[in-house]
């Protein structure tokens, strides 16, 4: 599978798009080696009105358009934690189910995961193990 990704920098209003295709292995390497803590410390050093985003990496599967985003924050003890944003096709009811169902892209989020668990879910995403990610959103 091939992926592209985008980066949200704390101080920049514009999102940085990296559209050159990358592999599953490169996705994991980029996420694991990203300077999450340094970016959060930098963000905390800015005036609040100058912070545009929490540090984030959003990976998109080029073929099926599904995406998985990691957004970093510090918890109350200043430990690194992530929110995960999963964008995929999902069946939704039309008019409370009276008109049936249709499939559309839906984003769900999950908050307060540690680095290791976040990387595990990212690996599920890049390897196409979507059912394991869905279990997270059913909790």
Account of the 3D structure:
With 139 residues, the protein is of the alpha+beta class. Helix content is 29%, strand content 39%. The protein has four helices and six strands; from the N terminus they run E-E-H-H-E-E-E-E-H-H. Strands 2-1-3-4-5-6 form a six-stranded antiparallel beta sheet. Helix 1 (24-33) runs antiparallel to helix 3. It is globular and about 50 Å long. The two termini are 28 Å apart. 21% of the residues are buried. The model has no long low-confidence stretch (mean pLDDT 94).
What topology emerges from the helices and strands here?
Layout: E1 3-8, E2 16-22, H1 24-33, H2 36-45, E3 56-61, E4 67-74, E5 80-93, E6 101-113, H3 115-126, H4 130-137
Helix pairs in contact: 1-3
Task: State the gist of this model.
By secondary structure, the protein is α+β, with helices and mostly antiparallel strands. 29% of the residues lie in helices and 39% in strands.
